[in-house]
Amino acid sequence: MAQSGPAERASDRWASIVLSVLLHGALAAAIGYSWYTYKRERPAPTLAIEATVVDAKSVPGVGKLPPQPEPAPPAPTPPPEPPPDTQPQVEPEGPPPPTPEELAKREQEQKEQAERETQAKQQEEDRKRAEQEKQQEAALAEEKAAEDKRVEEKRLADEQAKKAQDKAEADRKAAEAKKKADEKRLADEKRLADEKQKAEEQSKADREADLRRSLDQELRRDAARSSGALASWQSQITARIQRAWLRPASARPGIECVLNVTQVPGGEVTNVRIGTCNGDQAVRESIEAAVYRASPLPPPPDPTLFERSLVITFRPD
How far apart are CA 13 and CA 119, in angstroms? Predict the structure, then answer.
């Protein structure tokens, strides 16, 4: 719209110039036609005589008319003269023609009138153009508002669609994660069940093996005991403790004490507890010290005869 302004103003100027020329031409033609009509239709002039009417009786010597002479015979009429070649100059009649100053003034007034009319027309065109521009701006604003509304609606629709898509994607991922978690849980449960079953089977096998070993050891222990090996081993332990015992002065003959001895594989003594004993406290302490000095105890001749807890009857006499 800004680019069409100069072209429209130039065309308006040319239109104003053409209109002014036409108005001046029409005005000049009207003046000429009026002047021509005025010259052509002018009526013949009427002579006016100014006089005073008097009574003849009031004028002295006018009362009676003098005698009238006889009329003379008429003179012969001379022949008419030929008309001259040129018409006699007729004196201008009517108002005098306008002066150059009056013509200039009239032209100036006509020019100003034409300019006022042109200006009024220009103002009307400007008003119409402004109103048209205002209508166009309002239409553009309405179109822009509609476009903004459409864009906003599209944005909201896209946002809703994206939210729905994100929710669907989140639901899909959650379902997939749940499926994987369920599969992992089932796999873990199956693995744990398999491991438990294997552990139970292994435990059962170990118990059966331990039972077989215990039975074998029991059979061998029974065999060793029946052969006197256990008694021989216990005699070796008792002899070793008696050799390590330092007899206190308060000890009297016929001492008999029950010893509860705890050992580990290899014969090392870890604990000694005196049971029933007919000796005094000094005797008890001396026997306990003798057991620790006898450590490590001699190993059994057969490993099946090894026991952690031993019950030994100590009789030094």
Answer: 10
